[in-house]
Design goal:
Layout lengths: L2 H46 L9 H11 L4 H19 L4 H12 L5 H14 L3 H7 L1
Helix pairs in contact: 3-4, 3-5, 5-6
Length: 137
């Protein structure tokens, strides 16, 4: 390999490194845009949701909270938020079947997946649309 070929190879390698760096930077920017859009959608969903969901089996809710509220307070918060978001979507014409996934994603964003199972069971037992939520599974 002569000097000219070595120089061309170095330039090519340099271009590849720059392209890789740009690709990483673009990927990070796209991830940031996705996160921002998610937060905008999430904020709008909460804005349209009622302040409190309709808990129809308050006795079961209270009993579950008495037993588990101290150990798992976030599960109850997540369940309330999930129900609120679904009620907001239902008020806009959605069905439980059509909105439960997105609403769950908004309500449980960043929470452990175990919370989903516990919140789901709680809503099926205590929430106004619990019977419809059972049918989604």
């Amino acid at each position: 390999m002569n000097v000219e070929q070595a120089l061309e190879k170095a330039i090519l390698l340099g271009k590849q490194q720059v392209l890789r760096a740009i690709g990483v930077d673009v990927a990070r920017q796209l991830e940031a845009v996705d996160r921002l859009l998610f937060e905008i959608d999430r904020t709008e969903a909460f804005r349209q949701a009622p302040a409190q969901p309709t808990i129809t089996n308050q006795e079961a809710w209270d009993e579950s909270f008495r037993k588990n509220g101290e150990s798992f307070p976030h599960v109850f918060r997540c369940a309330l938020n999930w129900a609120r978001l679904m009620e907001g979507a239902i008020a806009q014409g959605a069905t439980v079947a059509s909105c439960h996934e997105e609403c769950r994603s908004f309500a449980l964003h960043g929470e452990p997946t175990d919370y989903t199972t516990m919140a789901d069971a709680l809503l099926k037992e205590c929430w106004l649309h619990g019977n419809e939520l059972r049918k989604v599974d």
